[in-house]
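retry 2 of 3: previous attempt timed out while embedding iron/sulfur cluster. Reduced batch size to 1 and resubmitted. Inputs unchanged:
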Amino acid sequence: MTITYCVGDGLYINITNRCSNDCSFCIRKLGDSVGSADSLWLGREPSREEILSAIQKNNLTEYSEIVFCGYGEPTERLDDLLWLCTQLKESHCPPIRVNTNGHASLIAGYDTAPLFAGLVDIMSISLNAAGADEYDQLCKPVFGETTYHGLLDFIKRVKKHVPVVALSIVGGTTDTEACRKVAGELGLSLRVR
Ligand code: SF4
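retry 2 succeeded.
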């Protein structure tokens, strides 16, 4: 079971295979692993204690950041994610980044944005599309056609609590300039990955 793996000089953390999207371009459809990982498919979800132990086996001073990413949406395990960030922050870890589809509040059913304050330094949010219809087509979210509105709402709220928030799209899957305009209206930069 691969819980931690390296990409560049970041230590990446794989805590779940669950996701509220089913994106047509999802990297999980292309192979079983990324970076130094063997397979990122989890036979079972590791406990929060197992994840913390796996992280602490690494020399954290060697990494520029800790990135919750993996083969699933980290905020599917919001309580565990926040608990892990709390433990890590108490031990003076490198900056913590969460790569997310921005569905945390849709999944939880309440405004989760304030919970990330002081725990997450960077949030990279997949914008994926310039509008609701396109998002629905590309990502097939379990929350249906209101998802894009929920995503934009989360972005606006979490900006107030996380120091660095950046949006991203997958190159070649959508209109980059239209997405850049949406990002600009939110006061954020757009990364094409
Ligand atoms: S949100 Fe990410 S993990 Fe989920 S289906 Fe889309 S690309 Fe894959």
